[in-house]
Write a structure and sequence with these properties.
alpha+beta; four-stranded antiparallel beta sheet; 12 helices; 4 strands
Length: 300
């Protein structure tokens, strides 16, 4: 497997900070200053694309403050993630095949926002039919939302191409777990690491569900449309609070209590990740290797 032997992380060296994301036939790794995308092309070669990023929280000090930084991070992650998917979709095509256009990526963004709204509005409407009140309403609503998400993930995982994305997701997690453990990043060693990671977006979704129960329980009952409205309006607040909890849990990942609390989120990742093959691990290793090189070069 090409380009896979990396220098292990020193214990005193900071982590990659943000982690990564699976894309179509590849892996995207985001460090504090760079984004790296590695794609396995039809000819078997690995294409590598890098981009320097200038986060809003880095440029504006106030946006880097706790409970504020999560809001720009949420939108930046969405933008960079969709951009990475668009790039990988084009890179994975044969040269003679028609590439995806900006119009199609705009349509994808619109569909993503519509799907997000679906997971907010429909569970609320279904729970309303049960005539529940107070915190019980919010708990049932969160369970309905979680069930809808699980059904969605299970349904799309039946699609072979999406199943490969889940496997690349597993490869990304294994590689970052190995890197953060400080071991020599060789394919045989990376394969031994779990495909679950506490900083994953799947765990973030579970945290959002828990925070939504508490936050919505503190809001006054201002009628059907009022309650539906603040479920949409408070999305940035939910994201911001959940972001801080995720960062806190990652900083204290060795805590026995936090390990227990993170079990449900890690359990969900068994649906959103798959066991990767050796070629997929090669792609993830190359992406992490390049991210390390760029960060080291920027700190000299």
């Amino acid at each position: 497997m090409e380009g896979t032997r990396l220098t292990p992380r020193r214990r005193d060296e900071p982590s990659l900070a943000f982690g990564g994301q699976a894309v179509i036939e590849g892996v995207m790794i985001r460090s504090r200053k760079h984004v790296v995308i590695c794609i396995r092309q039809q000819n078997g070669e690995i294409m590598t694309e890098t981009e320097e990023i200038d986060s809003l929280s880095e440029r504006h000090r106030i946006l880097g403050l706790p409970f504020i930084r999560g809001i720009p991070a949420l939108f930046e992650t969405l933008y960079i993630g969709l951009k990475g998917l668009w790039f990988s979709a084009n890179a994975a095509l044969e040269e003679e095949e028609e590439k995806f256009t900006y119009k199609e990526i705009a349509l994808t963004i619109a569909m993503t926002l519509a799907l997000s709204s679906f997971f907010i509005i429909v569970p609320f409407l279904l729970t309303t039919l049960l005539n529940l009140t107070g915190i019980l309403f919010n708990i049932v609503e969160a369970l309905v939302r979680l069930t809808a998400f699980l059904i969605y993930v299970k349904a799309v995982s039946l699609w072979a191409d999406f199943r490969r994305v889940l496997q690349y997701h597993g490869a990304e997690h294994k590689t970052i777990n190995a890197y953060e453990a400080g071991v020599s990043l060789e394919p045989t060693k990376v394969k031994e690491f779990p495909r679950l990671h506490p900083r994953c977006g799947t765990s973030f979704i579970f945290i959002v569900l828990l925070v939504s129960i508490l936050l919505f329980s503190m809001m006054p009952d201002i009628g059907f449309f009022g309650r539906l409205a603040y479920r949409l309006i408070l999305i940035p607040v939910l994201g911001s609070i959940s972001y801080e909890i995720l960062k806190f849990s990652d900083r204290h990942r060795d805590s026995r209590i936090l390990k227990i609390l993170m079990i449900p989120g890690l359990g969900l990742q068994r649906l959103t990740t798959g066991e990767p093959d050796d070629d997929m691990i090669s792609v993830a290793l190359k992406a992490v290797n390049k991210a390390i090189e760029l960060r080291q070069a920027s700190t000299k």
